[in-house]
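seq as requested:
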Amino acid sequence: MTGHADRAAGGTGDGGGTGDPDAGGRGPSGRLDRWRALGSRYALLPLRIFLGVTFVYAAFDKLTDSAFFAASGTGSIGEMMTGVRDTSAVPALVDLALKSPAGFGYAIAFGELAVGIGTLVGLFGRVAALGGALISLSLWLTVSWQVDPYYLGNDLAYLMAWLPLVLAGASVLSLDRLLAERRRTR
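struct tokens:
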């Protein structure tokens, strides 16, 4: 990261010829700069892992719960949607889900699974993050809209957590990066 400042000042960015004993990463300041650069490079990786694992877990939680896909009954998607219909920000979205609760439940579960796997392996990272943000937005506007105060609703926090990944993508330890490097070498 220090190379940008060196180039802006007319240097080469490699620390050569400056007379600075810390230039080029040989002293304490250079080591600190390398750690900062490494931290910056991997800063979004914990968020990617957390969101990916959470969405995969949420998908499997739904897919392994036979009661979830029912139109009514304890723990069903239909009962949950009926319960939040009058307090949601977008009742029409809830009405749409109530036309086919099982279909909506499967769409959410498989959407979460695709988003989680895509995020974890870094394949179409920005697209996966956008899918996660849209799922979180739809859940915030329907299921957790009535939570008061608003910051206690987890879906809004998930929506905000997805946004850095929408903007930055999966630049390290990802299939996206591997594919980009293969394209450059051809």
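The mean pLDDT is 88.
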